[in-house]
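Researcher: Last one for today. Full complex below.
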Amino acid sequence: MAQPNEAQPLVQLAAATFRRRTLADREGVLGRLLLAPAFLYVILVVGVPFVLAILLSFSAARSGSLSFSWVGLSHFSTIIADPQFQLTLRNTLVFTIASQVLVMILATAAANVLDAAFFGKRAVRMLILLPWAVPVSLAAMSWAWIFDSTFSVINWTLRASGLFQGWLYWLGDTELAMIAIIIVHVWRTFPFATVVVLAGMAAIPLEIREAAVIDGASFWRRLFQVNLPLLLPVVTVAVLFGVVFTSTDLSVVYLLTRGGPYNSTHVLASLAFQRGILGGDLGQGAAIALFLLPALVVVAIVMLRLARRAEVGA
Amino acid sequence: MTARRVVRVLKQIGLYSAAAAFTGLAVFPFYWMLVTAFKEDNDLYVAATMRAHIPWIFNEPPTLEHFQYLLGDTAYLAWVRNTILVGAAVVVITLVLAVPAGYALARLTGRWGERLGIGIFLTYLIPPTLLFIPFSRVIAVLGLQNSLWALVLVYPTFTIPFCTWLLMGFFRSIPRDIEEQAMIDGYSRLAAMRLVVLPLAVSGVLTAAFFSFTLVMQEFVYALTFISSVGKMTVSLGIPVALFRDVFNWGAMMAAALITSVPIAIVYNLFIDRFVGGLTAGAVKG
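Model: Here's the assembly. Have a good evening.
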């Protein structure tokens, strides 16, 4: 049907002669105008503090005064030599990697369960999502109470079931506190990863899955050689978000242990808060927080690559 | 029973127990909130070494005393009010800026707009952890310490990028033909957007508003950094920080966590698919 296509410019021309073209019709200009307010807000309120964060890390700024004396790299050399900082950096890596590995295993398993048909599936999906929906600071307090040194329900259950007769000081022991923090991170991020993986599974063409079944591939073979490779981009997105949310999180560590016992569970975010805000040493706090930047840049690059590949593929 | 039938039954059992296990893991802390919120203190504070006292159930009749204390003797209602005020202001700011921006990126700016859209989305990944220290300086200079206005100023830094991205996806999903038809009928581009496209995008705009509000409710780090007096806290700050003073305050704290979490969780489930669709658009599209 070629006719409407030919007619359209004529109609537009006719319309244009009836009504003068105004600013509201010039697409390039209009696009810029509509975009400008949001863009300016982000530049001013994200960009400026971001630059300020870098400047602060080279200065002796303290929270009380407004002075901005340049101290060069001295904050960086101080913190790199500081054993507390080295431990903190290691903790951040351990928490992020351990929790994200567990999250990916749990999320892939949970997505496979939710992909199957069973009674009550909608309810299960809704309940599994709860940890992600609820404010993290409230969920963290529930966990703090679960891990309480005297009233821990976990300890009671372990004893009553005869599995373990000893006593676990969850948040009072260095290793147990680290495990507790990882548990909370996993609990909090696996629902989101599950939903993302599930969305990816729904996007795999049915023919491919059916072909694998017809060809007699077993469940595991289908999982590892058909589904997972096709899911890789989506899983990557879930992992990247998980890495960003876990590595930069302050609330779980702050509310569960305040970095304790004996400052053994600090992460970069909580140490930056302690030194920068509570201790008033803005410069050093900013320098500590900046160590998160390389990880974020890597995440951003991978995201851009994925986006570009999708663009080419589309 | 044939072997095949046995295998099928076993598979079903496996499926249901796996579903039950995942649900149990997800729900356990909420169950614990529920039980704690309604328990008498005598029933709550029994050392876990007492094997005869089962903490999983109500050993004494449930009570509302923690809720009465929470609503009568704490600043909880002020925190709720503060959260709603900040949330409403942030939602308005976000929509005013993100709706036009999302539309422009979807329709008007072409290829460089797509790049810019990804750039704006990436700023969502710049975490509060990197910014709260310079912000504390900026907020001090502006004289907004311990003021809700500090939160109103700062929260759009994550809601705008997020909602712009989300709305861009929504506007893309509306067929171009509809607004082209409107323009042929004599509307300007701006009028076509306002009168034809926006009414179609109501569900998208609602989703963006809802997620802005939940992001505000969930935020903890900025609130912790900027707000110091109990009366000005938001729920996500006040409940864990101000209610924690007294060690034996778990009943009230869990009561507060429960009545704050349940409404969010219910509404969240209505919107989650749109949210995931928006986030994974880039990765799934290919």
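The longest helix of chain B spans residues 250-285. Residues 56 and 225 of chain B are 36 Å apart (CA to CA).
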